[in-house]
Amino acid sequence: MKGPVDLIFYVLAALTVGSAILVATLPNIIYAAVALLFTFGGVAGLYVLLSADFLAATQVLVYVGGILVLIMFAVFLSSRISSVKLSNPVHFRIPAAVTCLALFGVLAYTAVSPVFVPKAQITYQPTTAEIGELLMTRYLLPFEVASVLLLAALIGAALLSRPDRPDIPRPDMEEPK
To answer: Which residue, 34, 135, 161, 169, shows the most beta carbons closer than 10 Å to its own?
Structure first.
């Protein structure tokens, strides 16, 4: 190791891979969602090490703040989720292990065999201001279309998730007189 940045990288990589393995193997969906939080956090930390500040902020805001909270709400709003036990089929474990070992062998060979030429030290510039300017000028229309589409999806999800209450009459379900 050449310094504290290497140590931080290895810690973040271990955190990301370890928690991703836990997401795939934990039988309790609540614990798997918490492990997913650590996976997303580790990926955001790796983005910070790459000086991709906008990607790190987007990772935290969209995935940790949005997707993970949505998953947790879906779990907590489901009435029978606590009685469900997730299980992986046992008959696919040997082919999966062989595939993982083969992929690991290819990646290890690729990482060890080529000679990496070190490049000159470069100074990283923040990219957030430039991306923000592009989003508000050149890419304004696609940005707004995506926001309207997400708003429509949010309204549809709220409409689908509300409970049906028999005591409240619904005008679209009444029979004509």
So the answer is: 34
Tens digits of residue pLDDT in 27-63: 777 888 889 899 999 999 999 998 888 889 888 888 8
Cβ neighbours of residue 77 closer than 8 Å, sequence gap 6 or more: 161
CA distance 59 to 42: 10
pLDDT at 65: 82
* Contact (CB, 8 A) for 41 and 23: no
Longest dimension (CA), the chain: 81
* Residue spans per domain, the chain: 1-88, 126-163
What are the C-alpha distances in Å from 27 to residues 73, 87, 88, 101?
Answer: 18, 6, 9, 24
Q: Which CATH code is given to the segment(s) 1-88?
A: 1.20.120.1200
- Read off φ and ψ for residue 106, nearest 5 degrees: -65, -45
pLDDT tens column, 132-157:
888 889 999 998 999 899 889 888 87
User: Does residue 17 surpass a pLDDT of 90?
Assistant: yes
